[in-house]
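Name: RVT_3 domain-containing protein
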Amino acid sequence: PPFGSLKLNTDGSCINNACVGGGVVRDHSGKIILAFSSSFGMGNSAEAEAKAILLGLRLCSERGLPISFMELDSLLIVNCFNDLWDPPWAIEYILRESKNLISSSASISHVFREGNGLANILAAHGHSSQ
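Structure predicted for RVT_3 domain-containing protein:
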């Protein structure tokens, strides 16, 4: 991200209905400010992706870390968050709560899996550390 701003990358994963997620916050120089991985219980891939965003934003909010940019590899979540698509009912409340934790000027964008590598690894870690 530009100088003085923070970017949150998140990813969710669901294997046999076991949902996990992870993410990383970096500053303008790429320095890791915060990293996380968590199990979310049973659900689907969309829920895992949405819960990873919510967890990341909660952790940032609790620590006073203002997020300016978010990137994730789920086009569904990006388009629902940006109000381009109606979200599935199972994640509507998660996205609503996430939006309440971030500035209206913050942006969320899609990034291909290759550009979301560390978040992907942290999410996968959740499966092995339940």
